[in-house]
Design a protein that fits this description.
- 63% of the residues lie in helices and 0% in strands.
- The chain has a domain at 45-84.
- By secondary structure, it is mainly alpha-helical.
- The longest helix has 37 residues, at 47-83.
- The N and C termini lie far apart (78 Å).
- The chain is elongated, with a radius of gyration of 29 Å.
Length: 90
């Protein structure tokens, strides 16, 4: 078990933000520092990975379009059969 599993889910005392300061400029500064820290964790994919991921997404989208088109055509055909009067053309 790591320490985060032992920690309580809600703060036991103080404010939820944990700073205790009422100065909005301090809060904005803290926010900017946290954003920069998170952006440093971002991993940029290589060109090969980007092309690979893009091709996979496009292939998946095309497959889903074909699936939806096929289901739409099948249900349209079935509803035409079910809701048309075969004797109306006589």
């Amino acid at each position: 078990m790591n320490s985060s599993q032992n920690a309580p889910s809600t703060p036991t005392s103080g404010e939820a933000s944990g700073t205790g300061s009422r100065n909005p400029f301090v809060a904005i500064g803290l926010f900017v520092r946290q954003v920069i820290a998170e952006l440093k964790k971002v991993v940029v994919p290589t060109r090969k990975e980007l092309v690979s991921y893009s091709a996979i997404v496009l292939a998946f989208v095309i497959v889903m379009i074909l699936l939806i088109f096929g289901l739409d055509a099948a249900f349209s055909w079935l509803s035409r059969i079910a809701f048309t009067d075969p004797g109306a053309g006589l």
